[in-house]
Amino acid sequence: MSSVTPDDPAAPRPLRRDAERNRALILAAAREVFAAQGLDAGFDEVARVAGVGVGTVYRRFPERGDLVEALFQEEVDAVVARAQEAAADPDPWHGLAGFLRWGAEAQAADRGLAQVLAAAGHGHERVAQGRDRLAPAVDALVRHAQEAGVLRPDVGGLDLGLAVAMIGRVGGPERAELRERFTALVLDGLCVRRDAPTPLPPVLPTEEDMAQVFEPVRRPR
């Protein structure tokens, strides 16, 4: 017979461990679901993947923004850090092209991250602060390349951000070669001069690729 009594301070500990386990399960499930479906995915789907009741999800994360912030704060900070690192690259074109490629692949792999980066209203203060730091970091990257004379002087930070977002919507996670095709086209358009067009990967887009790019983006419930 157990010696633990209702007044024993050790009694609540299993419940706290269970709550923390459920939180970890929910976060892992939400990361999987949001990456594949975007932030409009329902909490019922998150609960199903996590193997918990939907009420448990709402108890741990009463608002969608709470869950978004728990998942994406570090990811947004990582994007900012990557932009800052690219701006400090001693080869400005290498830094800019590398950031564009990396950003497009990161957004292709995670639709939720793409939505968090693209629109305000996802997450709370800490995610918003990270997102607010991204624009100056990308602007610095653009200036660095322009001052070196390798990037067109009429390009702005939002041009680069839109290019990353658009390429990231091409083809889904498994179609990196197709995204590289469009990355080469965009980079040729961004550079000041090019002796000859960059050779493109031989893969061609399909009608399915086109449909995916223009798939309606729904606001999260």
TrEMBL record:
<dbReference type="GO" id="GO:0000976">
    <property type="term" value="F:transcription cis-regulatory region binding"/>
</dbReference>
<feature type="domain" description="HTH tetR-type">
    <location>
        <begin position="20"/>
        <end position="79"/>
    </location>
</feature>
<dbReference type="InterPro" id="IPR050109">
    <property type="entry name" value="HTH-type_TetR-like_transc_reg"/>
</dbReference>
<dbReference type="InterPro" id="IPR049445">
    <property type="entry name" value="TetR_SbtR-like_C"/>
</dbReference>
<protein>
    <submittedName>
        <fullName>Transcriptional regulator, TetR family</fullName>
    </submittedName>
</protein>
<dbReference type="InterPro" id="IPR009057">
    <property type="entry name" value="Homeodomain-like_sf"/>
</dbReference>
<dbReference type="GO" id="GO:0003700">
    <property type="term" value="F:DNA-binding transcription factor activity"/>
</dbReference>
<dbReference type="InterPro" id="IPR036271">
    <property type="entry name" value="Tet_transcr_reg_TetR-rel_C_sf"/>
</dbReference>
<dbReference type="InterPro" id="IPR001647">
    <property type="entry name" value="HTH_TetR"/>
</dbReference>
<keyword id="KW-0805">Transcription regulation</keyword>
<keyword id="KW-0238">DNA-binding</keyword>
<keyword id="KW-0804">Transcription</keyword>
<dbReference type="Pfam" id="PF00440">
    <property type="entry name" value="TetR_N"/>
</dbReference>
<feature type="DNA-binding region" description="H-T-H motif">
    <location>
        <begin position="42"/>
        <end position="61"/>
    </location>
</feature>
<dbReference type="Pfam" id="PF21597">
    <property type="entry name" value="TetR_C_43"/>
</dbReference>
